[in-house]
């Protein structure tokens, strides 16, 4: 019997909103999949496209960027910058054979631990259905 595929998700989370929501989920004992590897960023606008490409090239099956809701960014427009970058990067990733559903940008407020939990579960389930990333064959993230 074969082992069920467990995707690896690299999550770049804004310190002020989504990371705080993930922390809230943890302190509230709301479990989310352990295959979500969190990287704390000061702002979603500071996620360089190279970070995303490197994550996929080093074995991630999905990349999640979490930021503040538009209008709530501590750096005024960092989340809007992230949205523009994600739109462009999604098109570039398609050229490498990486499907759009492997790369998510979501707004999660600091008080939305439940929302973070739900997005983590939804993305994990979606990636289980899709299977391994075309770039992650024989590569893993520790």
From TrEMBL:
Keywords: Iron, Iron-sulfur, Metal-binding, Oxidoreductase. The keyword Metal-binding applies. Pfam families: FlpD. InterPro entries: MvhD/FlpD. Residues 9-131 form the F420-non-reducing hydrogenase iron-sulfur subunit D domain. One of its GO terms (molecular function) is oxidoreductase activity. This is Hydrogenase iron-sulfur subunit.
